[in-house]
Amino acid sequence: MSVATPAPHPTGVWSWITTVDHKRIGIMYFVTSIFFLFVGGLEALIIRAQLWKPEQALISAETYSQLFTMHGTTMVFMVVMPMAVAFFNYIVPLQIGARDVAFPRLNALSYWLYLLGSLYMNVSWLWGMAPNAGWTGYANLTSTQFSPGQNVNFWVIGLSILGISSILGGVNFITTIVNLRAPGMKLMHMPLFTWMTLVTSFILVTAMPVIAVALVLLAFDRFFAATFFVPTAGGDPVFWQHLFWIFGHPEVYVLILPSFGVISDVIPAFSRKPLFGYPVVVYAGVLIGFIGWGVWSHHMFASGLGPIADSFFLASTMIIAIPTGVKIFNWLATMWGGSLRLTTAMLFAVGMIAVFTVGGLSGIMHASAPVDLQQHDTYFVVAHLHYVIVGGAMMGLFSGFYYWFPKVTGRMADEGLGKIHFWLAMIGFNLTFFPMHMSGMYGMPRRTWTYAAALNVDIYNQLSTVGGVIFGVSALVWVWVMLKGVRSGAPASPNPWEAPTLEWSIPSPPAHYNCPALPRVRHRDPLWREEDRAAIEAVTLSVPEVEPEMPNSSFWPIVVAAGTSATWMLVMTGRWWAPLIGLAFTAFGVFAWAFEDPFRKKS
Amino acid sequence: MTLRTALPAFTLLLALLLVACGGEYPQSSIDPKSDFAHSIHTLYVAIFWITLVILVLVWGVMAYILAKFRDRPGSPRPRQIHGHLGMEVLWTILPALIVIGIAVPSVQTVFRTQRTPAVSALTVDVIGHQFWWEFRYPGGRVVTANDLHLPVGRPIALRLQSADVIHSFWVPMLGGKRDLVPERARPEGARPDHANWLYFTIQEAGVYRGQCAEFCGSSHSLMGVRVVAESGAEFAAWLADMQRSEGSAADSVVADSALVAVAGAPGGAAAARIELGRRTFHAASCVACHAIQGTTAAGRVGPNLTLFGRRQTVAGWLENTPDNLVKWITLPGSVKPGAKMPGVAEAGGNFPPTNLSEEQVRAVAEYLWSLGKP
Amino acid sequence: MSDAGDHHYTSTGLPSWKIGFWTFIASECLFFGTLISTYMVYRTSSVQGPFPHEVLNIPLTSISTFVLLMSSLAMVLALDGVTRGNRKLAMGWLAAVVVLGLVFLGFQAYEFTHFVHEGLTIQRNLFGSSFFVLTGFHGVHVSVGVIWLTTLLILSARGKLPPEKALSVEIAGLYWHFVDIVWIAIFTLIYLIQ
User: Which H or E element spans position A596?
Assistant: First the structure.
């Protein structure tokens, strides 16, 4: 068994701009999402500073509206989702033994759309015209009458571009997972992370078009004076809420399922025990993906749907708690009787279960419609959603980061620093968000620029602010871990954790073609079966005489991304023909793309 | 710190947070003062204990696992267990039973709290505006703003509507929130758009704080409301006062001709200023938007100011003191960003600055503050 | 033990293009589904006319619907021509699809102008808003299809569409049939059931 030395790979900025390599695109997604994590984090800290004292006006009410709108939009669409997509990109092809994703150039297009859409929305800060109607953009506050500025326009257009990126990404990963598994690998052999990527991709492909239509309708209202959400012309503002949450609730599972996938891989690896009840965990994930479509109106209990609708959505929401609970029990059962190694990755996985349970249980509270009438739109809900999205999704992604860091960089991350990161993150996180349950219960609504001193909730807000600072520091420690690991971490072997899944059978970091030849997979957790492991590694660790043919880099994805984005941005001019310019540019890129042979030999 | 000590420590912190921070919480959602709020609270407390028990169990099991099943040098490979059908069925059925146990009373409460109340109910129209509340009482003669007077012990039905964007009426001690959705125009012959309703019966007199709970623009956080819950007799008296004239008690009205005489009498300087304020108010653009029952001021765009002196707040946000009132009249846009009222030097909504002198502002404030004062 | 490590291996045996495109169509279903729902939700909500029954011309649209249906038939025959390597047949039927598609777009352009003359615009009422956005997006899809198929027609004329490349025609056909089916749904729900 000889360890292959990765083949030299072109370097330089141009090679990254034109890359179609899923690993490089994964890294680009990851780095970009960390950049926006700091943008969104900074917004959060300014919010926390403003709320330090009651009746304070550190920043104006208008700036505050922009900050919380952009904080939410950034964290959901520019941080958590793309960070998960970063893992999809880098890890999924390795886990299923594929050379790349099914459509490498489309993958690059998704990334560039993500980058351009995110930058576009954030550029609005330069004019002080950042979106200001909340990340849910409830009609009819977003109508031209009540939001006459450009703020909401930036939001509509930026989000549309991000939506296209997500749909294309979803199509790509579904195809990859359905079609490019290593020979012999059945669906029920796939690692859980790949499974959850598949479910997430299905949600993306089906939920994103709904928000796309909602944004289109809003765009027509704003740019072409249509009346979809204008009550004085018969439009129904509550219809926006339906469209938004029909997308928005499945979106919640887009955020959380990748994290479920990560820790379903991490926990067995560090317990030295296979996942307890693999099929049940898979089915629970699929079920969550499906039921997630039938619960949207639990975000609208206060909007007056009537007792019958309230009861239906109350019940469906309760039902979704069951598969979620099952997953938690299966993780615990996996650890039970195991031989636990509390590495940083495992700590984050365990920590995720601990805090996600809090978020899940507070979710049960406001699944009960009457109780929700007290908690809806208060800091209690803010606490809940952060326990789910930060405690559930982000902690899981942190776990995945420490787990796969050696695979991606070929170096081990500093475990000591990693543990400091973990404890700071845990303390900071809980200190920030736990007190929000209290401020909410004592009557502080969300999205409030300030609060009356009489509410007596300053102490909880101050705890939150202190926690926020600690959480911010933990993020800096994280970056330090990254930089230190990349520069001076100990070299990593192909399988430093003795983990069971296929990505650990190839060198760390992998060659740009991933594996010299496709390995044959016959079981789940193949690297934990001696005979399978030997057979696989004989293939994956060998040095090929002739390198496998890989698609060429391409310039067209970035051209098409620029064209698509420009088309949307030109809508902002309000002239019906302006987008056609962008469309022509896109068409040019699409044609060039279509006639480019990705496997053409370079002379 | 290890994970094993962290979990109990965190639990302790949590418990401390729950009990240690005492004090008054005037907008608390767990201090019910109406039948509606009580129904919710009963449900909430039950769910709280159920979820707390689950949380403690999950964390307990986790702590046990972390303590017991650690990898130690030389520990053998653990037994490879792939699952156990019985266990999995068990922990699917148990949560199912628990959520059914929560769902059934929840559904019952949904129907009970949304049931149309008896005919004897007092119906008040609540209209949300950016960024204040308007209340219209039956008969249409009594209109007020930001303070909602309600009788204790009588079923209340609030009909919720909005004049602009979606707002949400929330007075936690009196129950859950409900959105105020702008009414949709409907085609000829079609049924008019339905409004949302809130039903409750207040059980205890007092002043209850609340505020808008659905983001409605820049001053959303300042859109406060107070419910003044009083006995039936007090409420009837208030209604009667509201329908009479500008000062409520007839003798407090100062006739124009008596102004000079009043100024000379003891305390007359104040009375003269009030009279100056009254004249300024009725001569300036104030009356374009504001109404005061019993006077010629009949504007309907802004809050009705009848019996303003008895109000709890200025603009739903500041405590009602003469100084705050002066501050508000001078700088409404700074107190409440996005407010449509013009200030002394700042335009507001479609109105130019009022250009009132400092003396005039103070006089107007004192006039308003005198309304409804005994 | 490994299979030949070339980039043509797939788990299902189907080309990835096909699976990817079906997935994309699933996404499109939701897109049009939401647009159609929007129309249905607002069908009777217009505060002022023109109302659907006043302007929708069923006989005329039946003809354009028939045209689009026929184009789907032509699409099937075009694909058949390409797979059989019959260039003349392929070119003829591809041209037929393009022409029929253009005719459909012509009908739509006429209908839109006529409606505007009748006073129905995007701004006029909810019927106008939702009708134009829905059928407009469908029209954009037809236009994209026409451009796509024209490209294939040119390729075929240059002899660059041998039977091995039938997949690219099949995918275009998949798209075209989908756009056609969406129109059937629109025609039924918007025109026939008023």
Answer: none
What length is written for chain A?
603
CB B190 within 8 A of CB B152: no
Q: How distant is the Cα of B9 from the closest Cα of chain A, in angstroms? A: 11
Distance CA A348, CA B138 (A): 60
Q: Identify the pLDDT of residue B29.
A: 95
Work out how many CB contacts closer than 8 A connect A with B: 310
- Quickly list H helices, A336-457: 344-367, 369-375, 379-386, 395-409, 415-441
pLDDT of residue B21: 55
Closest listed residue to residue B364, CA positions, set B314, B294, B316, B299: B314
CB contact under 8 A, C1 and A520: yes
Question: What's the CA angle centered on C27, arms C26 and C32, to 5 degrees?
Answer: 100
- Among B69, B197, B207, B340, most A C-beta atoms within 10 A, so best to mutate, is B69
pLDDT recorded at residue B285? 85
What is the rounded distance in angstroms from the CA atom of residue A588 to the CA atom of residue A579?
14
Peptide bond connecting A151 to the previous residue in cis, omega within 30 degrees of 0: no
Q: What angle in degrees, to the nearest 10, is found between the helix axes of C16-42 and C126-157?
A: 160
Instruction: Locate the chain A residue with the closest alpha carbon to B78.
Output: A338
Separation CA B328–CA B343 (nearest Å)? 8
Are B186 and C46 in contact (CB < 8 Å)? no
CA angle (A521 as vertex; A519, A524 as ends), nearest 5: 145
Is residue B186 less than 8 Å (CB to CB) from chain C? yes
CB C171 within 8 A of CB C19: no
Write the single-letter amino acid at A49.
Answer: A
Instruction: Tell me which long-range contacts C108-113 makes (C-beta under 8 A, separation of at least 24).
Output: C108/C64, C108/C135, C108/C139, C108/C142, C111/C57, C111/C60, C111/C61, C111/C64
Number of other CB atoms surrounding residue A8 within 10 Å: 8
* Angle value at C-alpha A475, between A470 and A476, nearest 5 degrees: 95
Inter-chain residue contact C133 with A227, CB threshold 8 Å: no
Q: Quick check: helix, strand or coil at residue A227?
A: coil
**DSSP label at A493?**
P
Torsion angle of the four alpha carbons A62, A436, B127, A56, in this order, in degrees rounded to the nearest 10? -40
**Tokens found for residue B31:** 């201090």
* Closest to C134 measured CA to CA, from C59, C43, C25, C44: C43
Residues 40-59, chain C: which have Cβ within 8 Å of B?
Answer: 44-47
Q: Which residue of C has its CA nearest to B189?
A: C47
Tokens of A454: 């009489």
> What ipTM, to 2 d.p.?
0.94
Beta strand pairing status for B155-162 and B122-129?
A: parallel
If you count DSSP H runs as helices and E runs as strands, how many of each does chain C have, helices first? Answer: 6, 1
Residue A240, Cα to own-chain centre: how many angstroms?
Answer: 24
Closest CB from A304, A353, A450 relative to B179: A304
* pLDDT tens readout for residues C85-144: 999 999 999 999 999 999 999 999 999 999 999 999 999 999 999 999 999 999 999 999
Q: Name chain A contacts of C19, Cβ cutoff 8 Å.
A: 102, 174-175, 178-179
Torsion of CA C175, A291, A351, A69, to 10 degrees: 70
State the burial class of residue A53 (Cβ atoms within 10 Å of its Cβ: 0-12, 13-18, 19+).
middle
Q: Spell out where A445-556 has E strands.
A: 518-519
Tens-digit pLDDT profile for residues B203-235: 999 999 999 999 999 999 999 999 999 999 999
Sign of CA dihedral A377, A378, A384, A388: positive
The Cα–Cα gap between C185 and C181 comes to 6
